Amino acid sequence: MNSTNAQAYAKVVENGVQAVETVKELRSTGYRYEDVFVLAHNQDRTDRIAGTAAAKEIGIKEEGMFDSLANLFRSRGDELRAKIVSMGFTDAEAAFYEKELDLGKVLVIAKTS
Asked: pLDDT tens across 6-49, in order?
């Protein structure tokens, strides 16, 4: 499922290799480094893919201080949904994407500046 709204574009891919390819495609269409994010269910996997793809991870700047602190006490699923919502997606979209991440897929998000 792809989603396009006023805040961001998202694409679910099967693995890290496809995530890297998707990030490259987004860059070739004009998205800047600071506008492209990757997210996987496992934080270590997110770190590795973001480093390889030269993409960002969703952090305090995107989430805000309150949600970032709250994530310390949330389950990983709740944390992932909060991160996705902070990027401009609805709760329903976040739930869908989080389920895809549970299956081992990777989410690539591009924010519009």
From this structure: 458 999 999 999 999 999 999 999 999 999 999 999 999 999 99
CA–centroid distance for 86 within its chain:
10
CA angle 23, 25, 63 (to 5 degrees): 35
Residues with Cβ < 8 Å from 71, sequence gap 6 or more? Answer: 63, 78, 79, 82, 83
- The beta strands (E) that lie in 1-113 are given as 2-4, 8-13, 36-40, 106-111
Tokens 């860059």 locate to 27
Half-sphere exposure (Cβ direction) of 9: Cα atoms closer than 13 Å: 11
> What is the number of other CB atoms lying within 10 angstroms of the CB of residue 86?
20
Q: Where are the domains of the chain?
A: 2-111
